[in-house]
Amino acid sequence: MPHTTSLEHFDFLQLLRMLADNRKTGLLTIYRPQGDFEAWLEQGLVRHLQLGHLQGVLALAALLNDPQGRFHFDEGRTHPSPALKQTVDSLALEAMASLPEQDMPFAGPARMTDAERLDAMDWTDEERHVLRQIEQQVPVSDLWSQPLARGLISRLLRLGLLKERRSRVARLVVAVTHEVRGVALIDDLIFRRWKEDLVRHPQVLALRDEAGHIYQFPLRSGPNLGTQLVLPPDLIMQTRLRAGDSVLVKPV
User: Fold this and answer.
1) Angle subtended at Cα 187 by Cα 184 and Cα 188, rounded to the nearest 5 degrees
2) Which residues span the domain enclosing 20?
3) H or E element: which one contains 30?
4) What is the pTM of this model?
5) What is the pLDDT along the chain (252 residues), one digit of tens a residue?
6) Could you give the number of structural domains in the chain?
7) Which of 13, 71, 122, 184 lies 20 to 30 Å from 59 when distance is taken between CA atoms?
């Protein structure tokens, strides 16, 4: 047997996706006492899956239901008579449909992590409707009672395509600067968290003061600002704010 590594510390689908993302060709073998699993890749596409007498989606579903064993990737090998030519994501979505249902992972809204991967998949009209509801930030608890939505959310979470949408509201203290004009400054760390959650660069900040007045300003980040919202005089003059005021801010 070649040198192998235990699956204990790996997520099998992430391992398979890593090979596919790097457009690998070869044989990924999972050595198991009850029978070896084989995944044949060619230029990043899955060409054949086998576990004992099971093939294709059934073989993948059986492995995902019991992801144990030791793995080895033999690069460069090709299957003599491949029966598949699919992406890891499309096969995984189909295989996970037969797995036991999960408990609701969280109650609030979710966010999509990779629009490009999602756009590359084939969806039914009903599934697209669920995806639109997720984009509109409908809470997972509201969708969980629908069997189709429950199954789709579970599979997308397993693939890393959905994550919990965390609150993006921050309470900051107003400070004044004369070093910039026309933009609000927040700390790099807050900006980075917003960017990760939005999956894009936040460009506009919404601000709510203690009296309930709401303002929107162009946004930039800076180092070591901590809990300060730094505003230049030209923006301060558009508001009723003063240095030291506490405000709620979020990206638009």
Assistant:
1) 110
2) 5-96
3) strand 26-31
4) 0.67
5) 578 889 888 899 999 999 999 999 999 999 999 899 999 999 999 999 999 999 999 999 999 999 999 999 999 999 999 999 999 999 999 999 888 888 999 888 898 888 889 998 999 999 999 999 998 889 899 999 999 999 999 999 999 999 888 767 889 999 999 999 999 999 999 998 888 777 678 899 999 999 899 999 999 999 999 999 999 999 999 999 999 999 999 998
6) 3
7) 122
- Other CB atoms within a 10 A radius of the CB of residue 63 amount to 22
Instruction: Identify whether residues 122 and 68 lie together within a single domain.
Output: no
Q: Is residue 105 part of a domain?
A: no
28 shares its domain with 81: yes
The residues, any chain, with a CB within 8 Å of residue 173's CB and separated by 6 or more, are: 227, 228, 229, 244, 245, 246, 247
Asked if residue 236 and residue 177 are part of one domain, the reply reads yes
- Residue 239, domain CATH: 2.40.40.20
Amino acid identity, position 216: Q
- Within a domain: residue 104? no
Question: Does some domain include residue 45?
Answer: yes
Distance between CA atoms of residues 46 and 82, nearest Å: 9
Q: Does residue 149 sit within a domain?
A: yes
Please check whether residue 163 is in contact with residue 113, taking contact to mean a CB–CB distance below 8 angstroms.
yes
